[in-house]
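User: I'm curious whether this sequence folds into something compact or stays loose and floppy. Could you predict its structure so I can see for myself?
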Amino acid sequence: MKTKLIMAGLLTCIGITAHAQDAKANEPKGKAIIQVFGNFHSGFGAENDDRGFELDRSYLGYEYRLGDGLSVKGVMDIGKSSDVSDYQRIAYIKNALVSWKKGNITLNGGLISTTQFNFQEKFWGYRYIMKSFQDEYKFGSSADLGISVAYKFANWISADAIIVNGEGYKKVQKNDGLNYGLGVTLTPINGFNIRLYGALNESGDEGKKDITNVAAFIGYKHEMFTIGAEYNYMMNTSYNENADLSGYSVYASVNIPKDVSLYARFDDLFSKNDWNITKDESTAILGAQFKLGKYVKIAPNFRMSMPKADNAKNSYSAYVNCYFGF
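Assistant: Here's the prediction. I'll summarize afterward.
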């Protein structure tokens, strides 16, 4: 009898503990989102007049987990205007979304992060220093209004689909067209990733052409180093026929003990029949990153830009990028 009582007591304790753990896991939890990107930069030679301190971007927001896989998130993006004559700060709503994750499936709806280059941006890992290739050269937007779904079929393969307005998070819906995207991520071995993505962005205007985006990425991430390469192609840029852009980006980083890492990257942008020759260029960046505690990073780096237009001169600059966030 005593043995039965002891066993019953143990089973009861285990059940209570498990229930408490489940309840704790489903408790509402929230966290603030604060990220600040800044830099000091100075050009050399012909670009020597381009120098000063700069606050690139600030993200301010809040994420709240409601339990049972449901969460909400809102983020403000405070940055610079794309108009070079406008020196004022502009604030946008970057994210305003609801997410639900259950098992291997994840659903997002609202003003969501797009999937076009999100994987590459995270793999590059130095967004506060320089945007990833597609973001830097305007192949697409990092956020948009719509819905997305992702499903993990197995440890080595997952897929995602997205439908958004196609005009980014800084503009209201102007055209009737939508942007449809589909991506597949393969992880044949631990740390080794292959990413394929394709998208069709409808013009919605008569006489304009749909934009087509295709991208391929391959990379390997180790605890001591990372190396990655991506190729991107965009047809009918800005909905204009034969205004095609293509290019590749190669990047690598090496981790050194005591929170120090070295990184390097090379980009090359081309346009079909040189229609964008005034902006076509190759760029290179080389630098180091120092982590000052848990929330602060400082990254001095040297950059070189090599325009492809005739008689255009190379430019050289030095940066000290700073990051604060949690």
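Summary: Helices lie at 2-25, 118-124, 133-136. The radius of gyration is 23 Å.
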